[in-house]
Batch of 2 targets.
Target 1
Amino acid sequence: QSIHKDLEEKIARFHQREDAILYASCFDANAGIFEALLTPEDAVLSDELNHASIIDGIRLCKANKYRYKHMDMQDLEAKLKEAQKHRLRLVATDGAFSMDGDIAPLREICQLAQKYDALVFIDECHATGFLGPNGRGTDELLGVMDKVTIINSTLGKALGGAAGGYTTGPKPLIDLLRQRSRPYLFSNSLPPAVVGCASKALDLIMESNAIAQSMAAKTQRFRSKMTAAGFTISGKDHPICPVMLGDARLASVMAEDMLNRGIYVIGFSYPVVPKGKARIRVQISAVHSDEDIDRCVEAFTEVGRKHGALP
Ligand code: PLP
């Protein structure tokens, strides 16, 4: 419908790209892109900790596959050298990694891509709408909006919370996806109510950068206060703040105690994260007030002392 076309146009404008295509989810966008774009003559180089949907999308394509160590630029460079024999090279990475709250070194990735004639693809599910001065995402945060070729992202997280995904990038790529991408061709389009919701969310972010700026300030408040209280927070500058505890049982009982205090945080342990790296993942939201954040830090401090995570 025309509302779908309008939303695609708005998404492209938001990301300052030529065109965009909607999917029912970002899982579908990731499942549909690699097979449509890459042939057995090409190569894809993927961060080892990329999201499952990128891994599955890559599995579906017949390109030569290289997996580089997580955010390891030496390893990426070695793999890019090896991949010079192929026709086309695509580096694929999450913009922000959701388990650790760490941000891909996109400046360095784009430099390497330029040096070794590769395209860059980023999955911005954990960045769109709040990272960067205007909430455009990791590419804006790191000043490489003109160097990243393809962005896949979701409408189901910061942009409304319901469902939907998209690819945005060069027009010839989007034209190709409309003809060849299987989850686009062989599945229903987004329900109109979801389109309306996402469109309004984009309006709010594009009208003013107040939401994006407040997210950055709240994230900083939580991270610095928790660090001062003696906790270790993984990642950097990201509103996903994993409170690292190590022990699975400790993470589970502390999360339960936080819930009893009215604070909804989730404990993660093996096999979702590596053994010995259990954590409680806290997600800062634009609707949290400074008082909410302070109350959360106080509750963590109390619960941490009670269970021996803090002295
Ligand atoms: N990519 C990443 C990095 C994600 O975290 C997720 C969702 O968890 C997806 C893709 C899939 O997004 P969607 O829920 O829109 O299918």
Target 2
Amino acid sequence: MLAGKRVTLIIGGGIAAYKCLDLIRQLRRAGAQVTPVLTRAATEFVTPLSIAALAGEQVYQHLFDLKDEAEMGHIQLSRQSDLLVVAPATANMMAKMAGGLADDLATTLLLATDKPILIAPAMNLRMWEHPATQRNLAQLRADGVGVIGPDSGDMACGEFGPGRMSEPHAILAAIAAKLRAGPLAGKRVLVTSGPTHEPIDPVRYIANRSSGAQGAAIAAALRDLGAEVVFVTGPATAPAPEGVVLHKVETAREMLDAVEAALPADAAIFAAAVADWRVENSSHQKLKKTKHGAPELIFAQNPDILATVAAHAVRPALVVGFAAETEQVIAHAQAKLARKGCDWIVANDVSPATGIMGGAENAVHLITRDGVEDWPRMPKHEVAQRLALRIAEALR
Ligand code: CTP
């Protein structure tokens, strides 16, 4: 995924520095070369020796280390990588970066570089929420610095809330997204996901049981192959992946608007369970019980987003739909492929006995114009990875 990429990893002085050992391992497994830089405070939490052993490279620590400067100047060091990552980014480090300070090797590299920067903040929750830190965060974002996390949870200091550094796998995904590495580098892919909510009145709506898990997994897998992913999601229970361009919508018509606004794209994957109908006579006020009995709802057909995009003036080169069937899965899916004008249909049997709807696994058939492939039952994230690889092949 990151073969041929070099990442300078600046390890800041926080308890989360220990997670960088795993991050280095994961980066190297993904094919990246890692240049580690430790701040003075970082050495209180991890040793240069363990970092060097895992990175398989020299650790840089001091601005005025003559040996390093003789071999490689700090300017060169700041530019030899494809990306600079600061993990953990402490409140102090963020303040220095936002203010443009350069009083040690790490901050000098960050100021001298012409490469993109990604930070993974980690600190006590009060420090994170402090107006000064939020001000610095806004400044860094405005300067084009990418930010991953922090996560919420139990903190080493005994408090609970946002401030934990993101897990190494999430940082790795954000690095891949920032580097646009992998076979889908330079490609823009649109993914719809989740259910839609169609209002009856301001407090009631029509929905379905889609969790959005398969769509989120597909978006993450495409991102991990280097695509720029535009993720248009209804109100799903599964969290949206990190490192995608996120558009949250409620209704089918809002989803269509967001999808059309996101075009052009190289591929579009329609994993959303869009409500076929909306309530045409939805009420602006909460419906009240009356002595005249139950309200009469009038339904109107929603636009078919997949069919609209498949026939669009700026149609993506690859349009993929989903078909959830309970009988004659292949025949129904093949008819759907022709009817909607898409290139592929990912079909599955969602009969209750299969346990697929709401479950962690899926068994799908990939229907193309050339035939049908039956994929074995596997976890949804593996279905997503396999589909993402097929999409990468198709767009090559
Ligand atoms: N779809 C869409 N917009 C809609 C309805 C569906 O984009 N208004 C997409 C879905 O995201 C999915 C595919 O079309 O990719 C599913 O087609 P659909 O006609 O909804 O089929 P099923 O839900 O499987 O049900 P049925 O065949 O019973 O209509």
